[in-house]
Amino acid sequence: MNVIEFNNVSKKFKKGEKFNSLRDAIPRLFGNGNGLKREEFWALKDVSFEVKKGDVLGVIGPNGAGKSTILKLLSGIMVPNKGTMNIVGRLSALIEVAAGFHNELTGRENIYLNGTILGMTRKEIDSKIDQIIEFSGISEFIDTPVKRYSSGMYSRLGFSVAAHMDPDILLVDEVLSVGDISFQAKCAEKMRELLKCGATILIVSHNLTLIQSLCKRVILLNRGEISKQGTPEEVIPYYENIVYKQREEEVKKKISTQDYYVKANHEELIRISDVTICNGQLQKKENFEVGESITIEVDYEAKKSIESPIFSLEIIRADGVLCCSSNTKENGFKLNNVDGKGRIKINLGDIGLASGIYVAKISILDREMVHPYVIRKKDIFRIEAKGLDNHSNAVFLPKIQWGLK
Amino acid sequence: MFKDLIKYRDLLFMLTFRDIKVRYKQAAMGFIWAIFMPIIAVLAGVIIKKAISIVSKQPMELGDIVSVAVKVLPWTFFISSIKFAVQSLVGNINLVTKIYFPKEVLPFSSVLACLFDFLVATLGLSVLLIIAKVGVSLYLILMPVILIFLILFTAGLGLLLSSANLFFRDVKYIVEIILMFGIFFTPVFYEASMFGKWKPLLLANPIGSILESVNSVVVLHKMPDLFWLSYAGVASIIIFIIGLKVFRKNEPLFAENI
Lengths: 405, 258
What we know:
The structure holds two protein chains of two kinds. By secondary structure, chain A is α/β, with parallel strands linked by helices. Chain A is 27% helix and 34% strand.
């Protein structure tokens, strides 16, 4: 049975300032106001999906994709411009859980106030208030006005009220980031409990690990349209790759505006004319899959003869983490005098980097490794996840073997 | 029409409780708050009555002051309800944009909280009535009906103005000015009959007819003018229905237009 149905729903908003006073609106009625036309844009375009009873649906997507608009439509705060929605059962939204609080009232009074705003009756709250207070973990301060609360206490109390509504459908929007670790664990437990009781959950989150662990189905939204839907294993890597691609362009833009050629001496002795990043078969490439071999070729051009220069390679992740470094000296690869054009090949093999964007920083130094002749930091490559990426924070994914002894 | 309201009556109660508690706590004067404005208004009324008595060379009677006090209470209930109701949607922007519930409970709770003030002030007034030996009459049984008309009219206007203020923020200022000078256009400090043939003009304002009826029932111990009372009743019910219809029609637009 479908408990949520979205049939070709579209929602538009207007951009820019609106007339919100009679002083502006009345002259316009007589046609002599300045004809400010407000541009419209569609926050959701023709979106259709359904959620079956007991399912957990995750909604992911970049900022401005329309995720919150879906939640607002579902909770009834807004109505769609086109299309129809169908919701079966009592719906509770864990969105802005503390929105109904009043600062002057005590925690206990706010439980009643917020609970009734969310749609509970007073009797219902009477029967649950002890549970709610216990869940929030702030029983000591429950008769203190909430204006004295810390922001964590504030949201914990809000979450506790909303979580005790026993809804048939629960809408969750980034609220699990509330509170400390033990509270977060409690929240996750509460959600699983609700699921066991047959509740249906719709989660909007940027926390892909959470989505992956809770959801059976995921929808990827982009600019108001569903760009992919399916199991987390299908959708999440697809989304991650889109994000990396965007990020790569940003990194490229940033790097190309900076000049990384360092002239150690006033005259340029040697320069790096080109860097080629290729796969094991020496085909030039920018995107690699996890586990693919990588080779970097460096073309240099020396104006004068340089005695035993040292070539160095550093691989830096887009967020600045130095992942690995290597140079010809450590490697035991001895170059004698270098003169004229030449090419160095660096075989990284199956380096085992996790998915992400990386910058190869190549420098040529004098033989004492004191001053660099030249530093080049503008060559980018991207590693994409093949399947579901469980280790998005890891730098390397070495092939580790486990065994029983 | 009232199905949602019954379902959300606990919410209405909690919001009213919130408004009352917050107001009484912040004012730090407790219940004096409820009678402060009526007392000031009655003092103003005494000055005006005195002026009238000097000009007309008739002595001022205690009855005049009592009737001013009796009319001032419903009047202050009306203006403070409207004042709070106008702000009720815009002042609760968090609730309007983030949580779903029938939004009419917001202006309603403003009116109910002021009704509470009104009842508190009525207790104070009854002491005055006993001291002045005004006495009671059978006509007092009409009082609840008149009160219901007053509440319906106030709530209907509150619904209209609160949603208007959401779309046009300067409605609040216009309303404030009208309320400030409204007391001169309404028979609070004087009687409509003083204006002779212009009397209907003053009673066409439903609040005017309601106040005159209250005065007849409580102070003069006589049957109120039934024509004007039924006029006020019909007007109140129409205003309430229009208010609720307009409010409900615009309610889906609130969140994105606030």
